[in-house]
Amino acid sequence: MIASLGRFGLFVGTFARASLTHRPPVARTLEEAYRIGVRSLPILLVISAFVGTNLAFQGFYGFRSIGGQAFLGMFVALSGVREMVPIMVAAMVAAKAGTEMASQIAVMRSREQIEALEVMAVDPYWYLITPRFLGILLVLPPLTILSIATMLLAGWAVVVAQLHQNGQAFLGLAFGSLYTVDFLFATIKGACFAVIICLVSCFQGFTSERGPAGVGQATNKAVVYSAMVCAILNYFLSQALYG
Amino acid sequence: MQFLVSLGRFGVYGARVLWRMVTPPFELREIARHTVLITVRCVVPVVAVVFPLGMVLALQGASILKMFGAPQLLPSLIAVAVFREVSPVLATALVTAQGGSAFAAELGAMRIQEEIDATQVMGIDPLRVHVAPRVWATLFATPFLGLLGTLAGFGGAWFSASVVRDLPGGIYWANLWSLTGPRDLWGSLVKTVIFGLLVGLIATWRGFYAEGGEEGVGRAVNDTTVIAITAFVVLNYFLTSALFGGVG
Q: Which range marks the domain in which residue B123 is found?
């Protein structure tokens, strides 16, 4: 474990040097941003909608015991914006974009395309990883904001249609209890998770073993390790931002 | 249209696998081997994800409940949230990410290397020997990991509330069960069993029908995580509505 941590450190170092010493790959970054952002959007919105519905259930049940149904809006808004949406967005981006990065790069490794890039004097870190890194960093904050909006909308729908509570009060309290910094912090969290997911997934792809089993394994490790690191980092981020 | 076609294919595949799961002969050794393997593989990820999330819940919950002056409500709220939603969903997400995608990768590699065709040529039913035991394994492992995750979540919340903050441990453990009952345990088990079955079927389906070389294996793993997580998060809403009447 220590050895792979060290290898990961070296990988990040090489990547950072390659990205800083080369011209930024603007066109490829936009291409990756489009691929990650637009293709992940529908699934992210579905997930966020159902996070909102279940948060509404949770809050209603929990606060009913102290007669605080009226505070439902605050509960859904705060827990959703601060924790559940960033972490679920990270989980989905790891599952979709992260596994895609890992498997694409692992296939390239397996077919010796990475070696071919090196032979052509193209830095593979700069060519393969920098655009993915910048691309995911570019799209995750807007994806987080859109997910928050969907989450609140779905929570509102459940509150009105299924729990028969006052929708106006829900929305009023939800927006009343959120500050601009909450959105800022949510996007900061999203950006930190994006960095982790991208680096971990690309590292797994880059160091994968050859052959179909190796590709599968790299993809598998990519999503598990990024989820674990994100969940642990999330605690420290929350402690630092809201603690 | 494409979606409906896939849904139909998945339905037929699911029915064929389910039939082989409940009719003898059972591959008991294979079932046991896969169950142990997937459980062992998933224990660390589940604990490593749910424990910090429990800590975060306590951290955030404390600041919300302080506004009401009801800090003793914290443990019972956390217990409900972890039991009913957080642990089943996150444990299943990690079973998908770790176990399900491993199954998809294994079966995909077997398909690409024509091992599945070889099994068939030998007159052995690949769905029975390769697929059914794996689906049983996710079905058995997910409820267990869900309960383990629940304990880890309680532990994380306790750590954050009592050790980092200053809520006395006695208050925490005394209030933990005030809003939860046997119904939460059964509900949580029913949820995770259904999720486990769904994840097992989706993962083996994508792996079993992988095509197109190494990229195909990668795509099978990718599809598995995305389809399975989306499917069970959507299903979770309906299960919460049905099991807990939405609100309990």
A: 27-243
